[in-house]
């Protein structure tokens, strides 16, 4: 099973550098890391080219023009380009603990998606992590919310990972899918732009297709770097798309992954 990690980023190269260093320090490395870029400035490209010189796995940079927040399109392009059998979706502000890849592999099952959790860091702790290039945090670290998520206990994680179709707590910042399942669903719905709900809508269609969800707590740990939130969106049109998907029982979206498959029929070149 080859694992591709799809890291989405936008104009925060300092955070991306830390995310990539954490993935390079994994006890079990992924097959490749694909950075899918929603229109960042040139400093992100320069960072990636510098890091690629001695990066331990295949490192790919996919860039699309900045035309507003198009996370669905960016993620779909990464999925289309992925050579792995299994795709871990990771945000460019999520710093993976060193067992992250191995834990995702351990919890991957046919017919299931994996929903990981996150440790929330406050503004001061995030500044310390970026300044010191720290990729690991302990339970007693100052500036942590959801402190329990710093604990890695695989035996306890297995108790939480019973397959089901729970609707709450869906977040694509730390999520694993079989690539074939994503192709069957036609990936993320690109009719959804701006903030939020595109991950919930994808999982709604996955449930309609019969896939189950495994929640992974106390394993596959990742530390979320603080930034200002955009959650307070009034009358979000993405909510209406999600409601229509749930009402219709749709499995595939009309505007999704398949339109990018031809572009990446040949794998995109690595940066080095």
Short description:
With 272 residues, this protein is of the alpha/beta class. It has helices spanning 13-24, 42-52, 71-81, 100-107, 123-132, 154-160, 179-185, 198-208, 237-248, and strands at 3-9, 32-37, 58-63, 86-91, 94-96, 112-116, 119-121, 144-145, 174-178, 212-216, 222-224.
Could you walk me through the main structural features you see in this protein, from its secondary elements to its overall organization?
The protein is an alpha/beta fold. The chain has one domain (3-229, 236-255): Spore Coat Polysaccharide Biosynthesis Protein SpsA, Chain A (Alpha-Beta Complex). Helix content is 33%, strand content 19%. The chain contains 9 helices and 11 strands. The strands form 2 sheets. The protein has a 7-stranded mixed beta sheet with strand order 3-2-1-4-9-6-10, with helices on both faces. A 4-stranded mixed beta sheet has the order 5-11-7-8. Helix 8 packs parallel to helix 9 (237-248). The longest helix has 12 residues, at 13-24. The radius of gyration is 17 Å and the shape is globular. The model has no long low-confidence stretch (mean pLDDT 94).
């Amino acid at each position: 099973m080859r694992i591709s990690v799809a890291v989405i980023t936008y104009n925060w190269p300092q955070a991306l550098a830390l995310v990539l260093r954490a993935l390079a320090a994994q006890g079990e490395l992924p097959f490749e890391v694909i950075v899918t870029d929603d229109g960042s400035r040139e400093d992100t490209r320069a960072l990636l080219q510098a890091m690629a010189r001695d990066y331990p796995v295949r490192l790919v940079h996919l860039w699309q023009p900045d035309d507003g927040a198009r996370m669905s399109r960016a993620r779909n392009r990464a999925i289309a380009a992925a050579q792995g059998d299994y795709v871990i979706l990771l945000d460019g502000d999520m710093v993976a603990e060193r067992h992250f890849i191995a834990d995702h592999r351990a919890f991957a099952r046919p017919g299931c998606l994996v929903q990981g959790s996150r440790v929330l860091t406050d503004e001061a702790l995030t500044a310390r992590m970026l300044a010191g290039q720290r990729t690991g945090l302990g339970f007693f670290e100052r500036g942590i919310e959801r402190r329990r998520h710093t604990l890695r206990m695989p035996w306890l994680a297995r108790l939480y990972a019973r397959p089901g179709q729970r609707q709450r707590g869906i977040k694509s910042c730390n999520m694993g899918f079989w690539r074939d399942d994503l192709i069957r669903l036609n990936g993320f719905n690109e009719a959804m732009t701006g903030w939020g709900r595109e991950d919930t809508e994808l999982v709604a269609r996955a449930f309609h297709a019969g896939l189950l969800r495994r929640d992974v707590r106390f394993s596959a740990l990742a530390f979320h770097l603080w930034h200002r939130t955009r959650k307070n969106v009034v009358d979000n049109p993405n909510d209406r798309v999600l409601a229509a998907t749930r009402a219709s029982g749709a499995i595939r979206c009309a505007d999704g992954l398949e339109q990018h498959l031809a572009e990446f029929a040949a794998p995109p070149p690595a940066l080095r």
